[in-house]
Inverse folding.
C-alpha cells in the first residue's frame, strides 16, 4: 500500500467515514435478508451516524485539557471549529432528508432519536453502560430501514441474527475501548475498560464472543439464515483476532481501523 493511500484511509478512519460506510452496508445487508426494497432512509442513516460519532469525538476533544494522545482526538482538537461547522451542515441536511423517508421509518427514527438523547443523559450517571446501550442503538439504527418496510415473514431466526449482530457491535466497542485504554487514561477520558478494569473487560469481551459464536452455530445447525449468520460470525472472529493479537503501540491505529472497518464485511453477502 502506497503512503498516499495509507494516509487517505487513515484520514477516512479518523473522520469516522469508514463507520458511516459500514452502517450503510450493514443496513443494505439486512434489507437483502428481510427482502426489503432499497429506500431513501439510508441517507439520514449515514448522516446521523456521522453526526453522532463526530459530535462524540468533538466533545471528548474539548474535554481534554492538553494535546490529545490519540490521533483521532488530536485531529478533532486541531480542526474543532471546521468540524463543528460540518456537523451543523450535516444536521441541516439530515433534517431535510427526513422528507424522503416513509412514515414508518420516520416514526422509528424519532423513537431512536429519543433513545439517543436518553443515552446522553445516562452516560453521565452510568458511564459503564455506554458500550452496551450504544451497541443496541447502533443495531436498531441499522435495522430500521429493513424492519420498518419488511416484506418477509418474521421468524425466530431473524431475532437470533439481530441479537448476533448486536453482539458484534458490543464486541467492537469493547475491543476498541480495550485498545484505547492507555490513551484514554492519559487524556482523562472514561471508558468501559477504565471503569470496569482489565479483568472484567476481558470477561465481557470473551462472553460476547462466545454468545455470538453459539448463535452462529445454532443458525448453521438448524439451517436457518446460514449465510447471513456466517457473515456476522466472521465479523466477530475478525474482532477477536484483533483483540488476541500483538497490541504494540505502533499497530494500534491500524488495529482500530480494522475494528471500525469490520462492518464493511457484509458487502461480501451483497455481491454474492
Amino acid at each position: 500500500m502506497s503512503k498516499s493511500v495509507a494516509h487517505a484511509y487513515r484520514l477516512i478512519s479518523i473522520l469516522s467515514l469508514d463507520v458511516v460506510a459500514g452502517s450503510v452496508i450493514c443496513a443494505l445487508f439486512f434489507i437483502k435478508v428481510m427482502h426489503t426494497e432499497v429506500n431513501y432512509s439510508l441517507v439520514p442513516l449515514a448522516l446521523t451516524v456521522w453526526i453522532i460519532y463526530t459530535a462524540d469525538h468533538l466533545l471528548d476533544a474539548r474535554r481534554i485539557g492538553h494535546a490529545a494522545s490519540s490521533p483521532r482526538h488530536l485531529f478533532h482538537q486541531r480542526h474543532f471549529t471546521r468540524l463543528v461547522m460540518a456537523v451543523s451542515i450535516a444536521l441541516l441536511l439530515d433534517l431535510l432528508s427526513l422528507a424522503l423517508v416513509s412514515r414508518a421509518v420516520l416514526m422509528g427514527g424519532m423513537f431512536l432519536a429519543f433513545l439517543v438523547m436518553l443515552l446522553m443523559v445516562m452516560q453521565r450517571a452510568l458511564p459503564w453502560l455506554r458500550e452496551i446501550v450504544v451497541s443496541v442503538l447502533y443495531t436498531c439504527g441499522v435495522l430500521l430501514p429493513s424492519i420498518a418496510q419488511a416484506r418477509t415473514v418474521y421468524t425466530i431466526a431473524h431475532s437470533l441474527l439481530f441479537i448476533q449482530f448486536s453482539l458484534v457491535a458490543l464486541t467492537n466497542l469493547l475491543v476498541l475501548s480495550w485498545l484505547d485504554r492507555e490513551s484514554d487514561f492519559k487524556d482523562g477520558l472514561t471508558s468501559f475498560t477504565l471503569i470496569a478494569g482489565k479483568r472484567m473487560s476481558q470477561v465481557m469481551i470473551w462472553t460476547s464472543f462466545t454468545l455470538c459464536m453459539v448463535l452462529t452455530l445454532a443458525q448453521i445447525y438448524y439451517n436457518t439464515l446460514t449465510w447471513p449468520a456466517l457473515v456476522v460470525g466472521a465479523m466477530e472472529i475478525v474482532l477477536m483476532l484483533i483483540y488476541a493479537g500483538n497490541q504494540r503501540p505502533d499497530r494500534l491505529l491500524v488495529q482500530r481501523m480494522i475494528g471500525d472497518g469490520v462492518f464493511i464485511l457484509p458487502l461480501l453477502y451483497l455481491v454474492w
In short: The radius of gyration is 18 Å. The chain has a mean pLDDT of 85. The first helix runs from residue 3 to 14.
